[in-house]
């Protein structure tokens, strides 16, 4: 099968590798209808995260089940499925509490690789959620978004306790930040402040429900949000970047007693204990338990209540994966969908 392999920073190739197959009896193999490139795939692409030899890339996927292992009960060949970027049994105590991304048997799909013509899905019964039927083609990008960026933005909004009467600030205007805006709107937030400097992303932010745009960053961004909130700061803040600057900004612009939902993968974030102590904010985050939200998100997409697939602004064949990475790296695209 053809698969996207990263050899070194900036060096992405599409190569022939052995077909994905059932290894464990709880595995399934799917043929993805679409996969995509994630902002987190850019960390190794930019050399910020180390690669350990040539690496199969990707962790987002939707598609049709082609094979199932002997112990798979709930998923069958021919099912149309969406899964999270973390495979989980969905039965252990951690899963049952709603934290499937930290399942005691978790498998990060990034360690398997999904940007390929076939994908092995571990723990298929726990990981995969069936759609009500074969989706119409225009729903596929939204279902694919549910696999990670929508589910992650949704978790961030829930962790930040976005809801009626709340002012929500969103740090980061990548796909996750933009979909955090959509989630905050769906959860009933009164006011949503998007922090973005890019005109095209500001436009999509407004379409998803942002009521205010703040272009300043760092201390100036904090000051601007406080100015917009009567000097108090936001009730709920979504941090969707993962840098130290973004995290400091998120904590700084949240009012005492407020909540920060942080879902940007942390890179060199240093939190000062005394500053955190006096901030009096709640911090909750981590790899999003997307599996918790998938049934609800699939329903909302199926009923055409939300259109998170709007974050894909470029579609390319899998063979052109190198261009997909370059386009996202150079910010010519927010998120690229790949068709295997
Ligand atoms: Zn589990």
TrEMBL record:
* Claim: Oxidoreductase is one of the keywords in the record: yes
This protein's cofactor list reads: Zn(2+)
Keywords for this protein: Metal-binding, Oxidoreductase, Zinc
Q: Which GO terms describe its molecular function?
A: oxidoreductase activity; zinc ion binding
CDD domains associated with the record: FDH_like_ADH3
Q: Does the keyword Secreted apply?
A: no
Q: Where is the Enoyl reductase (ER) domain?
A: 7-338
What does the sequence similarity comment in the record state about its family?
Answer: Belongs to the zinc-containing alcohol dehydrogenase family.
What is this protein's record name? IMP dehydrogenase
